[in-house]
Design a protein that fits this description.
By secondary structure, this protein is an alpha/beta fold. Helix content is 42%, strand content 20%. The longest helix has 25 residues, at 310-334. The model has no long low-confidence stretch (mean pLDDT 94). The structure holds zinc ion (ZN). Residues 247, 257, 259, 261, 264, 266 line the site of zinc ion.
Amino acid sequence: MRENHQIANVDLVKQMNSAVVYKLIDQQGPISRIQISELSQLAPASVTKITRNLLAIGLIKEVEQQQSTGGRRAISIIAERKTFHTVLIHLGHQHISIALMDLSTELLNKERFDLPKFNAISELEHFLQQKLDFFLQNNRSNDTKVIAVGITVAGFVDAKTNSIQSLPHFTLQEPWFLADSIATRFNLMTFVGNDVRSLALAEHYFGVTKDCYDSLLLRIHRGVGAGIVINHEVFGGYKNSAGELGHIQVDPLGKRCMCGNVGCLETVASNVAIENKMQRLLEDGYTSKWLSLESHDIEAICKASQEQDSAAIELIEYVGEQLGRVLAMSVNMFNPEKIVISGEITRAGTVLFSAIRKTLEAHALPRFVESTPLVASELKNEDVIGAFALVKQALVDGSLLQRLLTE
Ligand SMILES: [Zn+2]
């Protein structure tokens, strides 16, 4: 519900009705106009009008279906996904990925660029716009249409103003309106979000939490972060950015974290933390058939843990326990329907998951844990699928749809 009860704006009602119809077609198509009318409780005349407009811009199409009772063929409607493309950007610590994905989530192209050193955010913005310019020139075709840009960053984002508030490795003097500047330059609606929160949204649209009312996604990569979905929406909270589980302390005598505190979960469970720990073990003389000073990245460690390498198993189990502790607090706090672990570490399989589960059972309310599945993410294109979810969100909430209908 909206906070201020304004008099219903006619355009807003139109936008919401179009969104309801498109969402039904997208999720349940092939679907007939009569079914849409029944499910949406919109008058058949309204459904006819909305579908006519959506057909005119090509976002939906009619298909003939043989009715089960025989007789004449009925016309149903499905969403058109192949001819509409989205441009997705992930701004990481050292790289930028720019990708092209169609509305069926098929990745059509992806380029990755190293980020040079920048002195000012305007330089970074200029660099990004140049790369995007080339990318769009090379990826536009007459048969398809780019409809929007999605951007994810590893920093804090204000969803209300569509602006970047902070970045982990660059000090922003003021909020960065990158999305607005891209939208103006390329005349495309542009949406920006935090990378982990957007990944939780993608998981909710296309992944293992698809039908869940609420869920928790814990992402372990360069850092550790979480995305909380409540009532089918990513929970940001009044101040945005809820879900910084990576900065819960698990070791009071541990290492200094980039956030300034000591012994955060991130300092023991991030990929880099795990790799550094293994490096120290190898430097101290640990010998392994599967790991060496030259080859001990997270993937090698996960593989070794599955090959009975004792140090790899112990390390993954230790990390699993720390993840389990923090997840137990989260479970007691909001008792999610499902917990998802995302990241390279999930390749350690049962070694990791049984350690997490054991700690969860020891520290969270038994009633809560028993009914909470703990699963690995199965999403592909993890670096850019979150940005796609932002575009998808704008399609199904009507804002992007409205723009396409009025262009
Ligand atoms: Zn921290």
